[in-house]
Design goal:
single chain; Arc Repressor Mutant, subunit A; Elongation Factor Tu (Ef-tu), domain 3; nucleotide-binding; P-loop_NTPase; TF_IF2_bacterial-like
Length: 603
């Protein structure tokens, strides 16, 4: 059987692909030479090598283009599914220095007839204006309310599902519990269960004594019953905050929210907004027109439209995201409840959502998101040198070889050269896509840009540079290499000024008079501000830095002041300057490490 017959036999065959697969493993799955896979990837604008990882979408496109049908293997994905326990461990290990305060997340618990739903609806209706997108009838069972300029996130689970809901997600979901107890009914079995669960999970409890407006209300009796389950009111010497409210008549809500914020502030909720997002599915459904929709509470990180996500056993990309009001948004930070569209399957309530870490070295789309010149292969991840990536096209093989030899010889050890493609002929769309994927510059020698490729390059912001003289091309490459050389900054002290008087002082600008004690002073000079206490034997204390933006003598601009000159100076600095302070003037010179060989072969 020849290759053509074999391909015809395999065409249409369905293969299982995992969520992530290496290029060489994809070649084995497809029973094709690695070169065929690499060529098809490059044709689609993806520069890769045999060890690069491909996500499922990319691998499926390549496989289908080569005649196969694909399905995603869920089994491979299950290994990486986050559980609530794993999520808690991740949250506990977050770097405190990167964390910032976030809105507290509150779950409201209580007996089914004690007014929990009414309390939730009252708080929500006070924070959602009629006529807003979605109104107050949003299906999402989590929402935010603003109080005293701060946001509070509420999680609502109807009926008797609260405990299953909380157990599935662990204590990471909520920061505190509002326990609703009817003042005319007292503590019931569900009240006891809710209190016991909150205590077990270490969640602070704020008791909302509801229905206090009713004639049958007996607040003291209810407080006694609560004390019997170890929820002793503060006024009785205990530690439990209790607030009297009437959800129906909208009484006491401000006081309740005050206590929620105060209780939360005792253990200020924090998260790292700059990491990949992690969240929990609060609820999910299948929409006839939009497909799977998941309501998610973000625990940490920031979720953005376009993010690749894994939710339980499902995967997808965030195509659309809305807040609890139904307004379309592009970003969602910690403690924010959102509904997302873009999953392949409907996840379960309690599933953990995670943004997939970058597997995008092998995709042109991801290369666009990365900073220019970032390495695309894992073997280069530890190489801290800056990279010059180029695509090289020439009119002849001889010219191409001469250019490659010249450019390669120019590059010092301090810079990494990556020639992504080197070929004879006009610059094509494929060249542009390759350059885009690798953050490269396209150099052409005595060639033209084919068809609409220049417009594509402009659209993709790829630099195309055409030369007819090798020397000029190599000099352009030389300047690009020099820009990537590491820099040392050499500091040289050039003068010293004693401050005689301060005429004006603002937060960022000072006008002072002084005398040059040593050396010279010029406009734009950088200074170190130092102060020495008169009676102290300690060395002068360094207070801060600044720049002399203007120099004058006798109200005339001065380009240079020397020892003995008394001058006026306008200084940009946030540091407060006093009479007697010393301004040490210095000059910084940038010195590039390494050297680039010129076109005559001399470094």
């Amino acid at each position: 059987m020849n290759e053509q017959e074999r391909r015809a036999q395999l065409r249409g065959k369905t293969i299982d692909l995992p969520s992530i697969i290496r290029v060489q493993d994809l070649a084995k799955k497809l029973e094709l030479p690695i070169g065929n896979i690499l060529a098809t990837l490059l044709k689609n604008g993806v520069l890769a090598n045999l060890n690069d990882d491909l996500d499922y979408d990319t691998a499926a496109i390549i496989a289908e283009e080569l005649g196969y049908k694909t399905t995603e293997s869920v089994g491979e994905l299950e290994k990486d599914v986050l559980t609530p326990e794993k999520l808690n461990e991740i949250l506990k290990k977050e770097d405190p220095s990167k964390q910032k305060p976030r809105p507290p997340v509150v779950t409201i618990m209580g007996h089914v007839d004690h007014g929990k739903t009414t309390l939730l609806d009252t708080i929500r209706s006070a924070n959602v204006a009629a006529g807003e997108a979605g109104g107050i009838t949003q299906a999402i069972s989590s929402y935010q309310a603003e109080h005293n300029g701060r946001m509070i996130t509420f999680i609502d689970t109807p009926g008797h599902e609260t405990f299953d809901f909380m157990r599935q997600r662990g204590a990471a979901l909520a920061d505190l519990v509002i326990l609703v107890v009817a003042a005319d009914d007292g503590v019931q079995p569900q009240t006891k269960d809710a209190a016991a669960y909150a205590k077990k999970e270490g969640l602070p409890i704020v008791v909302a004594l509801n229905k206090v407006d009713r004639e049958e209300a007996n607040i003291e009796k209810v407080k006694k019953e609560l004390s019997d389950i170890d929820l002793v009111p503060e006024e009785w010497g205990g530690k439990t905050v209790m607030v009297e409210v009437s959800a129906l008549k909208k009484q006491g809500l401000d006081a309740l929210l005050d206590m929620v914020l105060l209780t939360a502030d005792l253990n200020t909720p924090k998260a790292d907004p700059d990491r990949p997002a992690l969240g929990t599915v609060v609820e999910s459904r299948l929409d006839k027109s939009m497909g799977p929709i998941a309501a998610v509470l973000i625990h940490t990180g920031t979720l953005e439209t376009g993010d690749d996500i894994v939710v339980g056993k499902s995967t997808g990309k965030v195509r659309l995201m809305k807040d609890f009001r139904g307004r379309q948004i592009k970003k969602a930070g910690p403690s924010m409840p959102v509904s997302i569209v873009g999953l392949k399957d409907v996840p379960q309530s309690g599933d953990i959502m995670q943004v997939v870490e970058e597997h995008e070295e092998a995709t042109a789309k991801a290369a666009q998101r990365r900073a220019p010149l970032k390495r695309m292969t894992k073997s280069d991840e530890n190489d801290e040198r800056q990279t010059l990536a180029i695509v090289l096209k020439a009119d002849s093989k001889g010219s191409l070889e001469a250019l490659e030899q010249t450019i390669t010889a120019m590059v010092p050890d301090e810079v990494r050269l990556s020639i992504l493609r080197s070929d004879v002929g006009a610059i094509s769309d494929s060249d542009v896509l390759t350059a885009r994927a690798g953050g490269a510059i396209i150099y052409g020698f005595s060639v033209q840009v084919a068809g609409m490729s220049q417009k594509l390059a402009d659209k993709e912001k790829v630099s195309v540079r055409i030369f007819t003289i090798i020397y000029k091309l190599s000099e352009d490459v030389r300047s690009e290499i020099e820009e990537r050389l590491p820099v040392d900054i050499i500091t040289e002290d050039i003068g010293r000024i004693k401050v005689l008087k301060v005429f004006f002082s603002s937060a960022k600008k000072k006008i002072v008079g002084g005398e040059v004690a040593e050396g010279i002073v010029e406009p734009k000079s950088k200074i170190t501000i130092k102060r020495k206490e008169k009676k102290s034997e300690a060395a002068a204390e360094q207070l801060g830095f600044g720049i002399i933006v203007e120099l004058q003598k006798e109200k005339r601009p001065l380009q240079k002041a020397e020892r003995g000159d008394q001058v006026g100076m306008t200084i940009e600095t946030k540091t407060k300057i006093k009479e007697g302070d010393v301004l040490e003037v210095f000059r910084e010179t940038k010195v590039r490490k390494g050297s680039v060989m010129n076109t005559s072969g001399v470094r």
